[in-house]
Design brief:
The protein has helices at about 10-45, 85-90, 105, and strands at about 50-55, 65-70, 80, 95. With about 110 residues, the protein is α+β, with helices and mostly antiparallel strands. It folds into 2 domains: about 1-45; about 50-105, no CATH class. It has a 4-stranded mixed beta sheet with strand order 3-1-2-4. Strand 1 (about 50-55) and strand 2 form a beta hairpin. About 15% of the residues are buried.
Length: about 110
């Protein structure tokens, strides 16, 4: 069973329609490829996750409230990356260590 029309005018019309559809598909492929390239550039340009982060409170003083391992899912939005020595200093000054990611263990900090 053949689904194509038997006469030339309808075949030419079908050919034109298919060419238009193919152009639309190619344009969509191009747009999706461009979006994927832009997404990948964004991933590549993303700064690395810091080893340690300091979480701050809400308010004017924004006092430090907790030390986290970088990438901890419990860290809030008010965090900044800090080096190892600052993380150790924050713990010695009484700032809490996150009970989920345990930065004190990772830093080798022994309270006492």
């Amino acid at each position: 069973m053949n689904d194509l029309p038997p006469d030339l005018p309808r075949l030419r019309t079908l050919e034109t329609w298919l060419a238009l559809q193919l152009d639309q598909v190619r344009q969509r492929i191009s747009a999706v490829e461009q979006r994927e390239q832009e997404r990948q550039r964004g991933i590549d340009a993303r700064p690395p996750v810091p080893d340690w982060v300091l979480e701050h409170s809400i308010g004017v003083d924004r006092a430090p409230v907790a030390v986290h391992v970088g990438g901890c899912h419990m860290a809030g939005k008010r965090v900044r990356g800090i080096p190892r020595d600052m993380a150790l200093r924050a713990l010695t000054e009484g700032i809490d260590a996150c009970s989920h990611c345990r930065p004190d263990t990772g830093l080798g900090f022994v309270d006492g």
